Amino acid sequence: MLIRKRLKALCCLMVLSLLFVACSSNKSSKELTQFKETQLILGTLGQITVYSDSEKKANEALSKAFSHIDEIENVMSTSKDSSDIFNLNKEAGLQSVEIDPSTMNLLIKGVEYYHTTKGSFNIAIGSLINLWGIGEEWQKLPSKDEISEAKTHIDLDQLEISKEKGTAFIKDPDMLLDLGGIAKGYAVDKGVDVLKENGIENGLVDLGGDVFALGNKPDGNPWRIGINNPEIGVNNSIARISVANKSIVTSGDYERYFIENDKRYHHIIDPSTGFPSESELVSVTVVSDTSTDGDVISTAAFVLGLGEGLELIESLPGVDGILITKNKEVYVSSGLKDNLEILDDDFKVVNN
Ligand code: AMP
Ligand code: MG
């Protein structure tokens, strides 16, 4: 996936989403101590917080979790040569490529989600992502002709997957895969798995705002996770929710963008138009059992817009969401209505 350098914005994001950590004391009632590590990873700022009665155990868990996330980046990045995605894109139209089982799983999931989301989530969107280059050095406003041409190379049916052989092949020579909308969530889930395998029961994995809250807080209460203010240049939490063993992922138009001719162009592309998705929405937060699902559904619901986005979230068991519009209206799915606490009165829940 694309390497991003908006560190300042990311730092703010992290400070906000982990506000509760800063507020909690280091020693818990169970005499567990907080250990934290931050690394630049997957083009974002990753922070893992664990609680443990042993420094050695905590440090081992932290370092193993980060190594595993690093391995994921090495197979799924679009830019690292020798990654599976890089190789698949390079060999598009030429030959099939052997891929890692984790890449295989994500490609299969990507295809499934392409159908569940009516094509609004599309891992074959690479040609458009490249054209816009949002967040990269080459970002620019493409011409309508360039967009129309790139749009003819995002047909996911052109991806051939053979699970038995462990290979994949892009038939269209001009099609490019981009796992930027799913890989971070997947990496969060794998990081959580590693923590659990290493005896950690309470903690937080946060990769640039894709968060998993493992267990409860060590005092037995649920984690309180802040929902970012989607306004540009503002850094408060507009609301918070209480969760345990849940993923919280947000897709927003404020996360990465550029401005040209007074218009802002952001990084979530509507595959049906080829342009950054335009709707009444400015952010979608998804609460779900895995961050892989949350990452996909938040991006897809953002593209679908308020009505269909909320419908998609309500239709999926175990999935909830908070959708915020340009008018600071907050729409909450049925499972979260009694959970969401508004902290900024400029924002109003309107569908209660
Ligand atoms: P997120 O920040 O999770 O909403 O994902 C945005 C990232 O996913 C972008 O930076 C692209 O790499 C990729 N992306 C953008 N639009 C789409 C889309 N419609 N379907 C799948 N991936 C997308
Ligand atoms: Mg996503």
Verbal overview:
- The chain is α+β, with helices and mostly antiparallel strands and 352 residues long.
- It is 33% helix and 25% strand.
- It has 10 helices and 17 strands.
- The protein has a 9-stranded mixed sheet with strand order 1-2-6-7-10-13-14-15-17, sandwiched between helices. Strands 3-5-4 form a 3-stranded antiparallel sheet, with helices on one face. Strands 8-9-16 form a 3-stranded antiparallel sheet.
- A hairpin with a 2-residue loop joins strand 11 and strand 12 (263-266).
- Helix 9 (291-304) packs antiparallel against helix 10.
- The model is unreliable at 1-13 and 15-29 (pLDDT under 50).
- Bound molecules: adenosine monophosphate (AMP) and magnesium ion.
- Magnesium ion is lined by residues 181, 251, 295, 298-299.
Task: Report the major sheet.
Answer: 9 strands, mixed
Bound molecules: adenosine monophosphate, magnesium ion
Please report the number of helical segments.
10
In the predicted model, the low-confidence regions spanning at least 5 consecutive residues are: 1-13, 15-29
Mean pLDDT, all residues: 92
Q: How large is the share of residues in beta strands?
A: 25-35%
Element-level helix/strand string: HHEEHHEHHHEEHEEEEEEEEHHEEEE
How many extended strands?
Answer: 17
Strand order of the largest sheet: 1-2-6-7-10-13-14-15-17
Structural class: alpha+beta
Question: What is the overall silhouette?
Answer: globular
Determine the N-to-C terminus distance. Answer: 38 Å
Radius of gyration: 20 Å
Helix content: 25-40%
Q: Kindly report the oligomeric state of this protein.
A: single chain
